[in-house]
What we know:
Layout: H1 6-9, H2 18-29, E1 44-55, E2 58-66, E3 76-82, E4 89-95, E5 106-114, E6 117-127, E7 133-142, E8 148-150, E9 163-175, E10 178-187, E11 192-199, E12 206-210, E13 221-230, E14 233-241, E15 257-264, E16 269-272, E17 276-277, E18 285-291, E19 297-302, E20 317-318, E21 325-330, E22 333-338, E23 346-356, E24 361-362, E25 371-380, E26 384-391, E27 397-402, E28 407-411, E29 426-430, E30 437-443, E31 446-451, E32 456-461, E33 470-475, E34 480-489
Parallel strand pairs: 1-20
Antiparallel strand pairs: 1-2, 2-3, 3-4, 5-6, 6-7, 7-8, 9-10, 10-11, 11-12, 13-14, 14-15, 15-16, 15-17, 18-19, 19-21, 21-22, 23-34, 24-33, 25-30, 25-34, 26-27, 26-33, 27-28, 28-29, 30-31, 31-32
Bound molecules: beta-D-fructofuranose.
GO biological process, one term: carbohydrate metabolic process
Catalytic activity: Hydrolysis of terminal non-reducing beta-D-fructofuranoside residues in beta-D-fructofuranosides
Domain Glycosyl hydrolase family 32 C-terminal: 342-480
Amino acid sequence: MSEWTRDERYQRYEDIDQEVMDELTERVNQSKYRQLFHIQPKTGLLNDPNGLIYYKGEYYISHQWFPLGAVHGLKYWYTYKSKDLINFEDQGISLKPDTKDDSHGVYSGSAFTYHNNLYYMYTGNHRDENWNRKSTQHIAKVLDNGEVQKFPKAVIAAPPSGYTQHFRDPKVFVKDGIYYAVIAAQNEDGYGRILQYQSTDIVNWTFQGEIKTKLEAFGFMWECPDYFNLDGFDLLLFCPQGIEPEGEKFRNIYQSGYIMGQYDIDHLVMDHGDFHELDYGFDFYAPQTFTDEFGDRILIGWMGLPEVTYPTDSDGWAHCLTIPRILTIEQGNLKQRPIKALQQLRTNKETALGYANKFTRFLKPYEGKQFELIIDILENEATEIYFEIRASKSQSLRIAYNTKNKKITLDRSESGALPEPVEGKTRSTYLDTPLSQLQMFVDTSSIELFCNDGERVMTSRIFTDDDAIGFKASTESGQAFLNFTKYDIKGGQ
Ligand code: FRU
């Protein structure tokens, strides 16, 4: 594919001929990798989820969008509404780059309510004639008819002194009636930080300082911060950039994870344990959380990464959002499970019970491209268990579990087309407890693998050929007694 020039990447969607968009749409619709039950861009590139909130009986879900192709260019917010987080009503563009401050993109942000009205806080990205960045933070009000009205000027007009123009992604939350925003930043020593602002009227924001953590030198930028209290624990989520791999950890180009402990919001001190990744797959970044109608904490991520070329790019589109996950803390550990509402997408149940051994078996009923599969490991005397999904004679995505060290591995080396550049063809994590269950949501070109009922999640895009629709099970030696439950999945509306 030919390189996009800067001018091409900063063309306005409004200036493009309908004919050109129709042609692009046609090309995208013919892509064999189009998803069935994930939010994906109708054309162009989707990245971070933005402005997630449950408001007046409806969920609002937006995402970063560059409409014209599978590259990072001039960003808009594209919005969906939903009553149940599985059927989505397309609202189209909600925020566009139409002021000087956001002339080079309406960047990521969050949603909140103030006096029962809905607002977004987001970053305006501007470049001057020398391509120097200027980042400002803005607020817009969402009217009942869906129209979004920007406040006339920035509510935070510049980063505080001591920080660079890498200053973005405000996440607003309310505590004891006071509004707070945590904002991604970079200090002048070139390290990622999170800054905290406070307001009582949402127009005037006071800089309180940087959140003090034990992570002094942990990457050059921390994107997309999020803060919340869950079951008595404070969690700070962020996406550090510039972390070196450590064994099986931190192998993607950029990371996405959390620190957990107790946060003293008045003194901005976070007392915390280690930084943990949220997801151990190949394709996960920039998640955002919100509370649902039941008061549960839900997370949605971007199933993709910056600076990586994907096999869909040549079809004129890239990326999708993850399915929503519900977060809980159990025995001091974060658990992530698919939201219950996804069960409404299930059709056509099939089950099977049987042994897997060293002879690879194709299990016929488990065929298809979009399905939910639950494997209960009832007994395990195998040294290693292997599952191959989306399998043909020559391709498959392999999931391997090593009984001895509880290591679970996603292996994309035989899975067809691959994103690039990506370090290695496997991703692994060590489970806390022996493998008892795998629950996977497989769409046309992705898998979200939940291990041991929310203990670990591995999210990856997969680009196997059309005939790779089988499922295989085997072991290295010894046998495992397994129960399979498979549902076909229908798309939401
Ligand atoms: C994260 C990010 C954000 C920024 C947005 C721009 O993927 O780089 O920091 O606001 O994407 O699209």
